[in-house]
Amino acid sequence: MRLTFRLLRFNPETGDRASWQDVRLDIHRGMTVLEALIRIKNEVDGTLSLRYSCRSAICGSCAMDINGSEKLACRTSVRQEFERHGQVAVGPLRNMPVIKDLVVDMSPFWNKIRSVAPWLSSKSAVASGPSGQMIIFPSQAQFHNVDACIMCGACVAACTTHEVSRGFLGPAALAKAERFLADPREPLHVKRFRIEQLQDTDGIWDCTRCNFCVQVCPKDVKPMEAIIRLRRASLQQGATETGGARHIVGFRQLIERDGRLNEALMPLKVVGFDINRLVQVGPLGLRMLVRGKVPSPFGHAIPGIEQVRAIFRTVGQRQRVSQPTRPSPRAASAT
Fold it and tell me: Maximum CA pair distance of the chain?
């Protein structure tokens, strides 16, 4: 069977913009996109640049944009792509600097990974193994498959927040940060510091929860769920100053009080007492009022409001019971 492959070519030495090139190639049953690209380079056009290594979906080097979705070329079937899309179009990962053809510069990606300090800060004082090592049982920590990440960069390339804000840490770095936050060997004060560092702009609250990182991840890491766990830990620590945190807290308060969302009060919950922001959302409030989106202050409470409040009380009691008690400074110094 002979197919036409569409390749997005870019050569920085010529100064030309990236353009599509059609290449005809005979394929065999079971051929992967990476096999086809290697054959094109060896038999058709030796100037084609691509990156690959293990060919076994382990190293993550061959992550590319294949028919508009981030995939590993070594595990992507040519036949399935053609049957699904009617073509096989291959380009470099999106939203990353292109070095040449299908090769992108991964330096920004690695810089973001390093910025979250993906390592244990110090050795634990608790050692319980025969050689002095610390033994971690499954009941002590759950890493939620985050360790399966192969650093291919597909999640960052698919991230809609990263597309408009290149400073965003990205799904891979935030998932790695959550993995060390969940590690029982990490001291508590370091975990609090990690959470504080992630409150800034381009941190955990900038994720729009588009879920694309989960869809394209070849190892089922589910980075977005790791970001959600980071947000929960942040709220439990009391870090509620950012707009994203205030949105969650305000949403919860309104539902607990009224049993429904009050769209007129929700912006005020997020903005707080910032005069400049209040002036900015003023026109929005007027438009909501005109369109009937502002609930009447004299409206009746929804049926079953007490049941809703009972749910919040029950959850709050369980959270207080599950949270570890902190020793007082006097008790800590005495020990």
Answer: 79
